[in-house]
Design a protein that fits this description.
The complex is a heterodimer of chains A (about 120) and B (about 110). Chain A is mostly beta strands and about 120 residues long. Chain A is about 0% helix and about 55% strand. Chain A is globular, with a radius of gyration of 13 Å. The relative contact order of chain A is 0.32. Chain B contains no helices and 9 strands. Chain B has strands spanning about 10, 20-25, 30-35, 45, 60-65, 70-75, 85-90, 95-100, 105. In chain B, the strands form 2 sheets. In chain B, strands 1, 3, 4, 7, 8 and 9 form a 6-stranded mixed sheet that branches. A 3-stranded antiparallel sheet of chain B has the order 2-6-5, with no helix packed on it. In chain B, a hairpin with a 2-residue loop joins strand 5 and strand 6 (about 70-75). Chain B is globular and about 40 Å long. Chain B starts with 8 loop residues before the first strand and ends with a strand. Classes of the chains: A mainly beta (about 120), B mainly beta (about 110). The interface of A and B includes residues 61 and 99 of A.
């Protein structure tokens, strides 16, 4: 069974940088598939941030591109998100997930999510 | 950018059939996926590639996609089906993952 777990700070001050890590178990990320980051602001819908392949290739949301870096570490079976210049509008639950964009583009496994509060 | 439109809320009587819609331009040319999300929980995939159910999802959940509208049908609605339901596509022309705004299903 594939499992994903987000880790990182729950509180970040503006305009600092958020760093989150997703640890994958039950599947070797070097075996394939894309691995993505998503977020959901309080009371709002889901927003795709970006997805990374095991080779390091990244597809990202152009509305966030200038602030986002997504990396993958196959040796640790982890991938990460860095988002800079944070504002209160970035307060959200952040999810990592497996992105099957080569198979119709659905998301089959999700982490439980981690709440990030951006506040001074 | 591609947009998906969902009604904010749908109500269904206990034991009846709920039909939740997702609208988009020429949506039938894309694969539509549906997620159930309960408060404080991560989304759960309930339908993928228009009509397919992942293992563990009851047969009461079914999907269709035609023209500009995809539909998630929940038969014999139960109290436990109360949740937000989100539709999603992968726009191959832009490579973006796109979600609808979600529909809150209330079982009366």
């Amino acid at each position: 069974q594939v499992q994903l777990q987000e880790s990182g700070p729950g509180l970040v001050k503006p305009p600092e940088t958020l760093s989150l890590t997703c640890t994958v178990s039950g599947y070797s990320i070097s075996s394939g598939y894309y691995w993505g980051w998503f977020r959901q602001a309080p009371g709002k819908g889901l927003e795709w941030i970006g997805s990374v392949y095991y080779t390091g290739d990244v597809y990202d949301n152009p509305s966030l591109r200038n602030r986002v870096t997504i990396l993958i570490d196959t040796s640790r079976n982890q991938f990460s998100l860095e988002m800079g210049s944070l504002t209160a509008a970035d307060t959200a639950v952040y999810y990592c997930a497996r992105d099957l964009r080569g198979y119709g583009g659905y998301i089959d496994y999700w982490g439980r999510g981690t709440l990030v509060n951006v506040s001074s | 950018s591609y947009e998906l439109t969902q009604p904010l809320s749908v109500s269904v009587a206990l034991g009846q059939t709920a039909r939740l819609t997702c609208g988009g331009d020429n949506l039938e040319n894309k694969h539509v996926h549906w997620y159930q999300q309960k408060p404080g929980q991560a989304p759960v995939l309930v339908i993928y590639r228009d009509i397919n159910r992942p293992s563990g999802i009851p047969e009461r959940f079914s999907g269709s996609n035609s023209g500009n509208t995809a539909t998630l049908t929940i038969s014999r609605a139960q109290a436990g089906d109360e949740a937000d339901y989100l539709c999603q596509v992968w726009d191959s022309s832009t490579t973006w993952v796109v979600f609808g705004g979600g529909t809150k299903l209330t079982v009366l």
